[in-house]
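TA notes, week 10

Several of you asked for a full example with nothing omitted. So below is the full record: structure tokens for the whole chain, then the designed sequence directly under it. When grading your own attempts, check the secondary structure regions first.
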């Protein structure tokens, strides 16, 4: 909805919106819609996915269910991995549904013919959301250590700030920051290599392992 509103504002010559979009306002059709939504998805995805994952882990402490959860026959590692897998499946569903809806919006806006470049852009947008959902795994660790969702949400906000600052201050090297790399790759695929995208997956895997490790060491009398 926000992307659609901004595209309509540009098409009607809204000076305030045009000034804020900068060079992106010179685009039209599918490139304009894609550029706007990619920037929204990059920051919004970190926040939305980070909040959801923080809640998934943090609510066990705030709701007082962690004691029963840790005492269940299911191993702690399985509990953590199940939460993370559920999160990843939900992220994939959100990515497909959101981008599918955006595609229909673009058609309704008369963005132009659908060609190979348009399909490639939308494929990158789906992967952007999936990678963004994967790279917020540190929030699960922070929520666990902080015994609640709020610390994890704070970590998600910090990831957004760090990514934005790094992209503005050092755009040439910001792609090596795992939390900024997916957005930079979606907008400028030619400047981001497989090694940098691989670092995104590696970061997610490392924090998955750390979260499992912390849960395995949780003490029941300190779980609330």
């Amino acid at each position: 909805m926000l992307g659609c509103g901004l595209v309509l504002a540009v098409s009607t010559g809204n000076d305030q919106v045009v000034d804020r979009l900068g060079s992106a306002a010179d685009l039209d059709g599918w490139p304009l819609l894609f550029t706007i939504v990619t920037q929204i998805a990059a920051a919004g995805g970190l926040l939305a996915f980070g909040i959801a994952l923080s809640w998934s882990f943090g609510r066990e402490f705030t709701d007082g269910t962690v004691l029963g959860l840790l005492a269940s026959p299911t191993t702690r590692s399985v509990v953590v991995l199940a939460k993370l897998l559920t999160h990843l499946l939900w992220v994939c569903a959100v990515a497909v549904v959101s981008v599918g809806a955006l595609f229909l919006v673009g058609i309704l806006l008369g963005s132009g013919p659908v060609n190979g470049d348009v399909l490639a852009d939308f494929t990158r947008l789906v992967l952007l959301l999936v990678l963004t959902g994967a790279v917020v795994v540190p929030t699960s660790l922070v929520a666990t250590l902080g015994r609640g969702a709020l610390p994890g949400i704070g970590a998600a906000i910090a990831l957004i700030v760090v990514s934005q600052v790094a992209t503005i201050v050092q755009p040439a090297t910001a792609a090596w920051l795992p939390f900024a790399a997916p957005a930079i790759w979606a907008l400028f695929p030619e400047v981001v290599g497989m090694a940098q995208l691989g670092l995104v997956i590696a970061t997610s895997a490392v924090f998955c392992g750390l979260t499992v490790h912390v849960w395995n060491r949780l003490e029941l009398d300190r779980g609330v």
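The chain has a mean pLDDT of 87. Use that as a sanity check on your answer.
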